[in-house]
Amino acid sequence: MIGQAQTGSGKTAAFGLPMLQYADPDADEVQVLVLTPTRELCIQVTQALRAYGKRKRLDVVAVFGGAPIRSQQAQLRAGGQIVVGTVGRVKDLISRHSLILNACRFVVLDEADEMLDLGFLEDVERILALTPSSRQTALFSATMPLAIRRLADQYLYEPVTIKVKTQTLTVDTVEQFALEVPSREKTDALVAVLEAERPEQAIVFVRTKIRCDQLYRALRDRGMNVRALHGDMTQGARDGVMISFKDGRLPLLVATDVAARGLDISGVSHVINFDVPITPDVYVHRIGRTGRVGRSGRAITFYERRQQRDIQAIERHAGARLSPWVKGAHVAPTPAKAPPRRHSKPHLSANGGGPTSKLIVFGGRAAGLEPSDIIHAITAATGLDGESVRNVRVLERFAFAEVPEGEARRVVQLTTGTEVRGHALALELARS
Predict the structure, then answer these.
(1) Core-most of 152, 196, 268, 287, by most CB within 10 Å?
(2) Burial class (CB in 10 A: 0-12, 13-18, 19+), 237
(3) Interacting residues of 312 by C-beta distance below 8 A, sequence separation 6+
(4) Are 59 and 95 in contact (CB under 8 A)?
(5) N- to C-terminal Cα distance for the chain?
């Protein structure tokens, strides 16, 4: 089956309860595999399945990077009828012959579009090829880009499609605003917005880890109860922040997109896009963190004058206008002039306009690289604004990025040789 639905719409129960019902607690073999794009979502799904199946004596094993692989191997040897894992760790365990999928009857791809964004789709295909053809496969995705459609066509047999109503996909429980702010005034504007809005809990989204730390320190120095969440933090520190935020003890979180994936918290009243999202799809994911479980939410996006086309693209995709933000403003979502595009990922050109060139970066997940690392390396070497580096996708051994066409050769020349996480980057122009 294909389920088109956002996080928080009950997907885990929808796929988890039937699998738990059919799984055999007396068979010491992997019968269920759930693939997730991030460690946080892996833990969240595992906790839910353990709670649902606590009376069935089923062993749910979580496997993810950042934790000792030997302890996960020991758990798999001891049983493990249900395995929930991140793509990279599952692939690693398969290569070590610690995870055998010959008896796997159910496979779930959770948040497949985020797997695509993170560059995991090739690995997902390799894993699916190792499972029995008689399996039942469920693919869940908030959006349906062409690459996900192709994956479904190749690996799902006559799937039933269950699609959440369009109104829910466009997050009609969220009041959406935009605020034009010059770059140098954004921190002061954020403080003013927070004072005016007085959120119960808010997530402030930024594009890079460096920006995340800078903004966190600026808000902390102004006396706010705030924490940062990004991929360079130790896993223990990230877990501590996540627990505090989920428990409601932390009212304000500054986060990057990758770090915030898997956050499923009903109490978030506000999402603030301090940096314009890199694509309209990312915008939908971000604002989907508020307005949960029937509650209303508010989303405020900061933008610079040169980014007006980015805002227009977001409005077309989300199917709602972003009203100008002023203190005390309220607005109901209204249809945009153009219907939202739901089966392709709209492309935002660099700096809101102009052609771009695609670059190949030789270095990927195997070197520990993340999209934000590549964005920072290019901007630090060239002086380009971070908004100029678009559509970054990190695969196992290399990555792709797009930059303004007129800057491409300079970017290649200046960024090649830059060391990131102990790996010297090499860039070249991609052939058209």
Answers:
(1) 287
(2) middle
(3) none
(4) no
(5) 35
Query: Sheet of 32-36: strands edge to edge?
Result: 60-63, 82-86, 32-36, 106-109, 136-141, 2-4, 161-163
Residue bearing tokens 């997109």: 257
- Strands 252-256 and 202-206: what pairing? parallel
Q: Helix, strand, coil: what percent of the chain each, to 5? A: 40, 20, 40
Tokens 């192709």 belong to which residue?
150
Question: In the chain, which residues fall in CATH 3.40.50.300?
Answer: 2-164, 167-324
pTM (predicted TM-score): 0.51
Cβ-count burial 71-100 (b if 16+ within 10 Å, e if not): ebbebbeebbbbbbbbbbbbbbbbeeebbe
Question: Taking the CA of residue 16 as centre, how many other CA atoms within 13 Å lie in the half-sphere pointing to its CB?
Answer: 22
Listed as ranges, residues in the chain with pLDDT below 50 are: 166-170, 333-353
Cα separations in angstroms, 266 against 6, 29, 258, 290:
14, 35, 19, 7
**Tens digit of pLDDT for each residue in 167-212?**
444 466 788 999 999 999 999 999 999 999 999 999 999 988 899 9
Which residues are CB-neighbours of 188 under 8 A, at least 6 positions away? none
What is the Cα–Cα distance from 309 to 293, expressed in whole angstroms? 32
CA dist., res. 72 & res. 218, Å (int): 40
CATH of 167-324, picked from 3.20.20.70, 3.40.50.300, 3.40.30.10, 3.40.50.12780, is 3.40.50.300
Place of tokens 């001891």: 78
Give 257's DSSP letter.
H
* Three-state SS at 202: strand
**Residue 258: closest CA among 119, 424, 352, 139:** 119
**Fold of the 350-429 domain:** Alpha-Beta Plaits (3.30.70)
According to CATH, where is 3.30.70.330 located in the chain? 350-429
What is the spatial distance between Cα 115 and Cα 85, in angstroms, rounded to a whole number?
A: 12
| Interatomic CA distance for residues 426 and 327, integer angstroms | 48
Residue type (1 letter), 125: E
**Segment 86-136, tens digit of pLDDT:** 999 999 999 999 999 999 999 999 988 878 877 888 899 999 999 998 999
If 0-12 CB within 10 Å is exposed, 13-18 middle and 19+ buried, where does residue 48 land? middle
Q: Are strands 356-362 and 398-404 parallel, antiparallel or unpaired?
A: antiparallel
